[in-house]
Amino acid sequence: MIKSLIINPGSTSTKLGIFEDENLISEETLRHTTEEISQFEKIVDQVDFRKEMILNFLKEKGEDISSFNVIVGRGGLLKPIPSGTYAVTDKLIEDLKIGVGGEHASNLGGILAKGIADEIGVPSYIVDPVVVDELSDVARLSGVPELPRVSIFHALNQKAVAKRYAKEVGRAYEDLNLIVVHMGGGVSVGAHTGGKIVDVFNALSGEGAFSPERAGAVPPAALVDMCFSGKYTQAEIKKKLIGNGGYNAYLGTNNAQEVYKRSLSEPEAKLVFDAFVYQVSKDIGAMATVLKGKVDQIILTGGIAHGEQVTGDISERVGFIAPVTIYPGEDELLALAQGALRVMNGEEEARNY
Known about the structure:
The chain is an alpha/beta fold. The protein is built from twelve helices and eleven strands.
């Protein structure tokens, strides 16, 4: 039996999971107030503060820190890397600390994991961070050489549900052609073939469908005009695209369930709801062409996949392409535990960053 401690840092919380193999023994979300977080100039400065909270929680739960066989952290904004479970090395820590791919709370995952693991002499890993990059060469071209397409998306959950589906149908993930759609605060639609995600709509910086918080693809010439209109700062434009876009921009909320409820009586909300379904479905159609129409299954996942109306409407539009499987939510703690287990059990080799 492998006992693991899973650490998933967010901007105002640190989610923890204790697993024995794939069985969740305990789960907790440690909340951090704005006042607590604001005292730190940089995200990396929060390491000692969060580590102390984690150790105090384990002590209160009566968990012997030395009983863990492995510590796993959420991967952060590193350099683009292939999918897999990565040993947390000094080089990986260095890039997380300097924010080589940008500053984000998830950068703390690997740092915290290694800090605790080193104290008890066990390995530490990260699994499928958002910068997983398996794009085919042809998928990288955007039309502007200075602006190549970039792979930033929900890699952890996309890989986890794809492998879950493969296991359930008794086939190797590498032998399947899948389209996986993660629908949360952002939306990512990926084409999986040969065990790789060869194309994906960037969930962070503006590709594909709009979402509760993202604008998605917008008319480029009009965006340029807006940027140079003098009405907005650079930060304000970025906030319009990432954070205040999509549902927030049209309806003033990022709550997908609320949007659906409002769509039953408000024409504007219904139009936004229908447009979301329409755009996600178009993205699925685009990824079907990447796979040359040979799609074994379409998988809908993420928090929005809890909504039967949205998954039903999408399925109605894309069901002619392939059957649809729905895995609501995103069990990131389990996905991280599974990534480490595959290495600890000898099913995969840990990658080096």
